[in-house]
Amino acid sequence: MSDLSKKERMKIPRQIMPEQDALERSSNFKEVNLGYTEELAKMEALRCLQCPKPVCVEGCPVGVKIDEFIKLVSEGDFLGASAKIKEDNMLPAVCGRVCPQEEQCEAKCVVGKKGESIAIGRLERFVADFERNNVGLRTIEIKNKSGKKVAVVGSGPAGLSCAGDLVQMGHEVTVFEALHELGGVLIYGIPEFRLPKEIVKAEIDSLKNLGVDFKTNSVIGFTDTIDELLKDGFDAVFIAVGAGLPNFMNLPGENLNGVYSSNEFLTRVNLMKAYKFPEYDTPVFNVEGKNVAVFGGGNTAMDAVRTSKRLGAKNAFIIYRRSEAEMPARKEEVHHAKQEGIEFLMLSNPNKFIGDENGWLNGVEITRMELGEPDASGRRRPVAIPNSEYVIDIDMAVIAIGNGSNPIIQQTTPDLGYNKWGNIVVDEETMATSKPGVFAGGDIVTGGATVILAMGAGRKAAKSIDEYLKTI
Amino acid sequence: MFKILKAEFIAPSIKRFEIEAPKIAAKRKAGQFVIVRINETGERIPLTIADSDTIKGTITIIVQGIGKTTKELNNLSTGEFILDLVGPLGKPSHIENFGTAVSIGGGVGTAIAYPTAVALKQAGNHTISIIGGRSKEFVILENEMNEVCDEVFPTTDDGSYGFHGFVTQKLQSLIDSGRKIDFVLAIGPIPMMKAVAETTRPYGIKTVVSLNPVMVDGTGMCGGCRATVDNKTVFVCVDGPEFDAHLVDFETLTRRNIAYREMESESFEIHNCNLDKAIGEL
Ligand SMILES: Cc1cc2nc3c(=O)[nH]c(=O)nc-3n(C[C@H](O)[C@H](O)[C@H](O)COP(=O)(O)OP(=O)(O)OC[C@H]3O[C@@H](n4cnc5c(N)ncnc54)[C@H](O)[C@@H]3O)c2cc1C
Ligand code: FES
Description:
The structure holds 2 protein chains of 2 kinds. Chain A is an alpha/beta fold. Helix content of chain A is about 35%, strand content about 15%. Chain A folds into 3 domains: about 5-135, Fumarate Reductase Iron-sulfur Protein, Chain B, domain 2 (Orthogonal Bundle), CATH 1.10.1060.10; about 150-245 and about 405-470, 3-Layer(bba) Sandwich (FAD/NAD(P)-binding domain); about 250-400, FAD/NAD(P)-binding domain (3-Layer(bba) Sandwich). Chain A contains 20 helices and 16 strands. In chain A, about 50% of the residues are buried. Chain B is α/β, with parallel strands linked by helices. Chain B has 2 domains: about 1-90, Translation factors (Elongation Factor Tu (Ef-tu), domain 3), CATH 2.40.30.10; about 100-255, Rossmann fold (3-Layer(aba) Sandwich), CATH 3.40.50. Chain B has 9 helices and 17 strands. In chain B, the strands form 4 sheets. Chain B has a 7-stranded mixed sheet with strand order 12-11-10-9-13-14-17, sandwiched between helices. In chain B, strands 5-6-2-1-7 form a 5-stranded antiparallel sheet. The longest helix of chain B has 21 residues, at about 260-280. Chain B is globular, with a radius of gyration of 19 Å. The two termini of chain B are about 30 Å apart. The interface of A and B includes residues 216, 222 and 280 of A. The complex binds flavin-adenine dinucleotide and FE2/S2 (inorganic) cluster (FES).
């Protein structure tokens, strides 16, 4: 099979990944995508032309050797493929599921210029799952202990990947996490139906196996300050506390009962398991047979609206002020949401929330918009259409318009450099902050971004922390 | 896991816990709180740190069994464990030498007012406390308050002990008697805090209340604890929990606090049913 000609390879259609039936899945929390079988994966891998100059690799923020791992998949060497990916990406099972591949590697794919690009994300996911299901946790014996200690603050993708690299370089690593569970957004934000928690737990378990020490219930700034960590024996600190301060729209009625931030709604459902209320104690507003509106157009908005559908909402709307083309969400999520019966109200901007006499939300007033001139982001600016206001009856609203930066680190470590939005300023090459021995990366530096960028930042920081530790 | 070194009822359905948490004990300041999750299926609830012992490495929390979690907490005894405890969270009380400072506690609110009363005394204030309860057995921490305050006035709604009437009536009588009051801290049920705010407002006495919204993370991440203060939205867990009583929108707070009441009682009934069933099967 592997001696197929280029033409023959191009003839193979993009292999469809099996998924749960849309109607069935819209009432359960099980993973939507079921993943490739070995046969499907090999077939998909054969579509790759093995370009001499693989441009897909340029599209990957961390430079995974895509052509090489796909070749190994086509040869049936799935474990070899996994090892190849892990040279550059610590969290392939996660990234294969949540990366915006259509804007990154797959956007560059040469095959995609004429037809459909190679399904790189699906292959990555298959390879990582194959390893997890067939080999279990791998342990590496770490020689050459450096005797140096590093504190990692936050256990999202940035913190986890930094910890993983540092421990393998021989340093002693302790990860401090504010919540009672590890994983950051991967645990409290992204729902089970898109990223099973068992996968995140397996990644964390393998870090534990390597000797990383995890301390939950530790809010750095309060439990210990950064300065105290440095004083108490840590030689360096990596700050990866994420974005984590939900933005609201400052509209009238935003504090009515029934209005949530996406962080609160998703945390209640995912982290606190409110979908299993009353078996679990944390409640979430009962939306069974009701109307739910989610404001925003990113992955978070898609996750929230699809979650509300699974909780029994009769009508679940995405309300977004630009058009569908401008929505930052992964295309697959938009597609899945539509299949599940989510209604998309584009070019619609909320003016105010309306409540009943007891202060419960029962509607939202919307203005229709049209696209005008491009704004600073290059996207066409939405402009209000005069006298186009109308009211939609809704029982629950979720505001998913992004996060600002959490103030706790800034308030307790004022001598770090911050920009006007409260993001930590770092040297982009080394991830070093203005304070010696203190590094930062992930959403706290970039503002809300992606898992892969956070992971990449964590690894970059690990490298320069290692350099730094040699100098002290 | 956090061990309960001592647990005892100090009033009907109000229990005092000493919990082993040396780090929090060493760090906490008056006005700060912890978030507690009792067990794997539990919710996260905020509880103010009433006291700490840095030598024993313990913090004290005082809990009134009202909702499911607080009732479950009050079923725990000495030697048992709490799964998750995180803190100290929130901004510490703003303490200075105001002159004469009155700390008002209603019911279990006295436990929350107590550490701040201690700090006010240490800062050099002449400290007065008014501690109210429905009836005698609900007046808590009188001995402790006596140790740190220059004057202590217990009040009861039914007149079974101390001053007969509400804490606000006692406060009004102090004001009417011509005493110069520079600062008031009021902690208790929302109607009480609101009434104190209205009592001091005409006199322009600086008044602070500690808000108790529903919380999830307690670190500013979810926005569930938001309240309206001075017509602006605040996140109580990171911007508070203490705010200028004259600027707080108590109506919004009351409304948001009962948002889950129906669901909570459903959860509690199921919990009780299961308990009954379990007992029945014994
Ligand atoms: C609902 C949702 C869906 C998303 N979907 C996608 C997607 O499909 N694809 C994609 O690429 N990206 C997605 N993202 C974005 C992505 O999750 C983030 O960019 C990424 O998780 C950032 O990683 P991080 O490590 O910087 O921070 P986080 O994942 O936010 O982790 C930070 C951790 O630090 C902890 N912490 C905070 N403050 C402290 C403190 N003071 N002390 C100790 N610990 C602290 C937090 O509790 C948290 O666990 C999504 C985000 C959300 C919210
Ligand atoms: S409790 Fe979540 S932000 Fe305050």
